[in-house]
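#structure-requests
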Amino acid sequence: MIVLMAGLPGTGKTTLSRELAARTGGRVLSKDEFRHSLFAANEIEYSSRQDDFCMNLMLQTAGYLLNQDPKRMLFLDGRPFSRRYQIENVLAAAASLHQPWRILECICPETIIRDRFADATSPAHPAENRGFQLYLEVKSRFEAIALPKVVIDTAPPLEAGVAIALAALRG
């Protein structure tokens, strides 16, 4: 199964996807980790063009992994899926791989997101452009997801979101 981890920056997509992968024996494919493994620091653009390139490589990787183990659960992380075409590209890949898909959209109150970005004890994130300003920019152009999805509020403890997500993945 291919799981799209959607939502604005700072809403907890990475934390949730890592926990879900650990509990399901799945894998997280992270756009930000792909970018940092492919490009030198001076080549990183944080552009839509580079994001799309990394996502295409992630989908090729997903195909390779799912051909080896079609029952594997793959969590696509690092992209808010804020544009319809981004979701459509993943769903087309899922269809070509004969794989089911789910969209988990993480949400969280803005005050908590601001606190998360300000928390110096938070684990390092590979995307250096990540911050409250990026959150505001993505929020201003976020296209509502009209496809079936499960919305998970990540403000409560992680376990609550994990339970909701696992139920959605089983259903």
